[in-house]
Amino acid sequence: MPKERGTYFDFWKIITIAITVLFVFFLIYPLITLFISGFRDAHTNEWTLSYFKTFFTKRFYYRALLNSFSVTITVTALSILVGLPLAYFMTAHKIRGKNLVEILIIISMMSPAFIGAYSWVLLGGRNGVITKFISGIIGHQAPPIYGFGGILLVFTMKLYPFIYMYASGALKKVDMSLIEAAEGLGCSGVKRLFTLIIPVIMPTVFAGSLLVFMNALADFGTPMLIGEGYITMPVLIFNEFINEVGGQANFAASMALIMVFITAVLFLLQKYYINKKSFTMSSLRPIPVTNVKGIKNILMHGFIYLVVFIAIIPQLTVIYTSFLNTNRMIFIPGYSFNSYRMVFSNLGTAIKNTYTFGLTALLLIVIMGMLIAYITTRRRNALTSVIDSVTMLPYIIPGSVLGITLLLAFNKPPVLLSGTGIIIIIVFIMRRMAYTIRSSAAILYQISPSIEEASISLGVPPAKTFFKVTMVMMLPGVFSGAILSWITIINELSASVILYTTRTRTMAVAIYAEVIRASYGTAAALSTILCVTTIISLLIFFKISGKREVSI
Length: 552
Prior knowledge:
Elements: H1 2-38, H2 50-57, H3 59-92, H4 98-110, H5 113-124, H6 129-138, H7 148-171, H8 176-184, H9 189-218, H10 221-226, H11 233-242, H12 248-277, H13 295-321, E1 324-327, E2 330-335, H14 338-346, H15 348-377, H16 382-390, H17 393-396, H18 399-409, E3 411-412, E4 415-416, H19 421-444, H20 449-457, H21 462-490, H22 496-499, H23 507-516, H24 520-545
Antiparallel strand pairs: 1-2, 3-4
């Protein structure tokens, strides 16, 4: 028995050390490289603050940061205005087609924002369907979708589901006894909603709001495709980095550090607020689902259906236009499979790379996710606590920034990874592992340690016990998180667009490139393949998890 206990300790000690080394090499070291590049002059190699001085003294640069805050603050407010009442209506009242509505909300959230931007270009661009229709009615050129307004539309319709999901989860935990007590004190109707229910769920809504804020702040594809002169920080960093002349890469690194600082502060503020304000509720009597009649019922259903329809328009648009005849940027009457033929003949490598890199990353994510979840829940110590915190870093660091850190760190011998598929796989793993780790940890909390102890007491080595007993019991929960990791992997653009070459580009990068080239037919076909893959993956997730909601 002592020998077995020693083996148990040694096995997990080796795993802990191995995972620590991987994170130090592929995350901490690149972040240190980014720090050094941001504070070091590209010509003299001396330490300097000149890049930061340039950024904060020249309007062209600091305006991008102001633009980013304008977008993110407004989008967060709009997402709350849309998502909070939607969550209340869907939770407290009977809604026709509720299951379908919830699935469509999740699909609109999990689909990439840049596809939404591309679809709205087709609809509301200068030659868009809606633009031409409105121009024909009013007799003048309708204002196009580009700029600040277009970015707000795309982001809000993409990100309001975060508020909806978090608020829905919180509302389901509100106990009816609280509402009855408020009514007994004379607080009812709208007053009860604003003085009791909303304050109770506010910490959870704040957590969802931070996710909206950080997703909007970090997104590259949407402002790049639809911003048209309205430059945000991710776009500015990308432009400075790819125009690598005269020390621009170091300047991009300094701006990336500013982004890292902002997201880290926001993350810490969120943790402080949640720890300070959050509390647990035991909903023995959840809020009852009621029927609303008359004009209120019509307005409520109209609001829900309108929001969901607008949010799902991008998917419907790309699927429809992918079957239209096209001459690059011009759609002509008639239907065909020409766009798909062009995709498979000219862009087949991008499709192959997406599935090859994605599945390879997913396999490694599943293995590492289970091991990390185990050591951070069952073998807790100072080192595993650090690992637990470090695994969340890629989740809060913008994708373009993470791409730059890896490129700066591995762009020369002895470890030359730039331009290879390996670096794409690494960024996929780092950015998307959080889903699998969290789902693995959640299922581990439901597995009694006594099961492993019984196996070990029967003479089964600890390592074998994990792989033969614990891991098998974890798999259902792990698969749920793995599917979410997979969906976000195949839709990854922000980091991939920094790291790709012609041999390693993925579907997301290819779609972006085709839209930039105004090759709308092939972009629509690729987007359809990506959307269909996402929808099928979500249906598999629903089947395996047995639920109709996604936990972030």
